[in-house]
Amino acid sequence: MPEELILNVKNLSKTYMQGKIQVQALRSASLKVRKGEFLAIMGPSGSGKSTLLALLGTLEKASGGKAILEGIELTSLPEKLLPSLRREKIGFVFQHYNLIPTLSALENVELALRFSGVSKKERKARAKTLLEEMGLGARLTHKPAELSGGEQQRVSIARALANRPALILADEPTGEVDTKNRDSIVRVFKKLSEKGQTIIVVTHDPEVAKECSRVLRIVDGVLSDGEEG
Amino acid sequence: MFDLIFRNITSRKIRSALTICGIALGIFAVIVMGAMSENFHQTFERSMGVTSDKIRIFAESGVFGGGLSNNKVSDVLRVAGVKDAYGLLMTTFDEDKMGMTGKQILGVPPEKSAIALSPVELKAGRFLHPGDSYQVVVGNNIKREYELELGSRFEIHEKYFNVVGILDYTGSIFDNAVIIPLETAQELYNVGDSLSYIFAVPAEGLDAERLSKRIELSVKGTSTLSPGELQTQARQSFMIFSVITISSGLLAAIIGGLCVMNTMLMSVSERTREFGILKAMGAETKDILLLTLGEACLMGLLGGVLGLFVGIGAVAIMNAWLAKTRIVLFLITPRLLLIALLFSLFIGALSGLYPAYRASKMSPMEALKHA
Fold first, then answer.
1. Which residue of A lies nearest to B11 if distances are taken between CA atoms?
2. Could you tell me which residues are beta bridge partners of residue B181?
């Protein structure tokens, strides 16, 4: 296993108010992730998996604890610096693909680079290469509605990779695809991990977890060490 | 970013088209009402330019009170500082059209006609001369409408007049003026020696405002309007007219703006998840603002351009139709076009401001959870 520590999470917690009731979605979660790890987080629905991912992706603010990504303390970063951090360090893959329906596959991938100020020419070239690597070279101009679920998820992975992020956070990436596409998506992640890309996947699927280098479990907001895959 | 904005508009074709039509309708109203105001403004400015050096004297009882007569002219002339004075009878040429065409009969003493019409110049012929009775000098629009030349016979109030002079085009009320000798006018309209106004020309270097007050105090039964007062009064009347005409156009444009706001709010609400995705990808608040505000501005601008073309077309059709009756009601100026276009952009931007603010303030996680 590679040695370089990329993510260090210490006592991360998140508390929501649901009306007058306080809900503790994540309780003092701690974990260390090394560069190139393909880490799975498993747990039942409502256990806090997606909350952990949202906190690591700076999509939500933590109620307590620390998360340090490549030396940057995410939890104390001012609001205005979060967009640039998301652009440069984090790539998201969602269960529902979340592609922009009016844009083609190529444009969806390009979009991620647009906000980083990459030139149009380079954007196009990088997006095309990524999609070709995902086996979608013939589907560049297709809109999401013209692509299968598996293809859409591969576009979404390409989009997550566009800015060469330090960390990819995937929330149930195989939740809406058939087994054939699931295996193909997992193969893509494994290949990326072998090349040094760090990936954290939240999943229900033991078949996905089986392919990961390490599996953590979360129950009622409590993260516990799992076994190495 | 423009391609994304354009894509968003074209991806919801019918809704965008309806919104653009809403704005276009508003800008159409601004153009039509504005063109009417511009026409009055231009006529007003030019008319001021050719009449503003004289003091206007009328009866205390008002223009139609009949309190002014020829002997008052001598009283005015006796006031120190008055270089010249003359009486004038003014009436509508086309009584059957209630004066809507703007054509006027001006009865002026023939020997004063050059002063009365100054600084308007002759295009052809001469001014009225002493001894003239059934001679007429016509404004440029009258000449064109009735196809008059020097020597033509021109019927006024069932009498025939000989055209002896044609005025140069001025863009003022004098283009629609029919100038005949004062005595003939008084006889023709059976008003005795009544006058509508007396005009006094101040001696050179004399303060017209002071002289105006002096005339009012010296000549009993009269009120005066100095060039300054006339300008102020006319400008106020013009402003009221402009406010009424332009406001109705603006109101329509504001309704168009509400259409844009409604569309943008719906669009922002429908695209909540999309904004969440963009934020997760690292879009800054300004990027989201630019996307939504740009969309509203572009719709405003497209509506503005459409409204502009439809407005120009409608004004051209109405002007062509009114040309038969010689009523000039609309004038499109570059200033009006620029204002209408900028206003459409402003309305678009203003209407998009709140939806854009809402979109930019969304929490990315909440936006992503949106169904």
1. A102
2. B108
What pLDDT was estimated at residue A227? 45
User: Could you give the CA distance from residue B124 to residue B129 in angstroms, rounded to a whole number?
Assistant: 15
**pLDDT per residue as tens digits for the range A163-198:** 889 899 998 888 877 888 888 888 888 888 888 899
**CA A171 centroid distance within chain:** 6
pLDDT band at B90 (very low <50, low <70, confident <90, very high): confident
**What pLDDT sits at residue B181?**
93
Give yes or no for a contact between B124 and B98, defined as CB atoms under 8 angstroms apart.
no
User: What's the 3-state SS for A4-56?
Assistant: CEEEEEEEEEEEEEECCEEEEEEEEEEEEEECCCEEEEECCCCCCHHHHHHHH
How far does the CA of residue A99 sit from the closest CA of chain B (Å)? 8
Contact state of A102 with B8 under an 8 Å Cβ cutoff: yes
β-bridge partners, B86: B199
- Interchain proximity A92–B363, CB inside 8 Å: no
pLDDT in tens, B155-199: 888 889 999 999 988 777 788 889 999 999 988 888 888 888 888
> What is the C-alpha to C-alpha distance for residues B86 and B91, in angstroms, rounded to an integer?
17
pLDDT digits (tens, 9 = 90+) for A63-85: 999 999 988 998 888 888 888 89
- The pair of structure tokens assigned to B283 is 């879009």
The pLDDT mean for chain A works out to 87
Residues of B in contact with A57 (CB under 8 A): 280
CA B54 centroid distance within chain: 23
From CA A134, how far away is CA A150, in angstroms rounded?
11
| Nearest-by-CA chain B residue for A57 | B280
CA atoms within 13 A on the CB side of A146: 11
Residues linked to residue B161 through DSSP beta bridges, in sequence order: B154
Q: Where are the domains of chain B?
A: 2-45+244-368, 61-220
* Cβ within 8 Å of B, A 129-168: 159, 163
Task: Report which DSSP code applies to B160.
Answer: E
Share of chain A above pLDDT 70, in %: 97
Which of A83, A100, A102 is the closest to B284 by Cβ?
A83
Q: Which residues contact B201 (CB under 8 A, 6 or more apart)?
A: B53, B54, B55, B82, B83, B84, B85, B115
Q: Which H or E element spans position A145?
A: none
Strand partners, A33: A7
- Residues forming beta bridges with residue B194, ordered by sequence position: B69
CB of A167 within 8 A of CB of A91?
yes
Do β-strands A198-203 and A38-42 pair in parallel, antiparallel, or remain unpaired?
parallel
Task: Please give the helix or strand (H or E) that residue B221 lies within, else none.
Answer: none
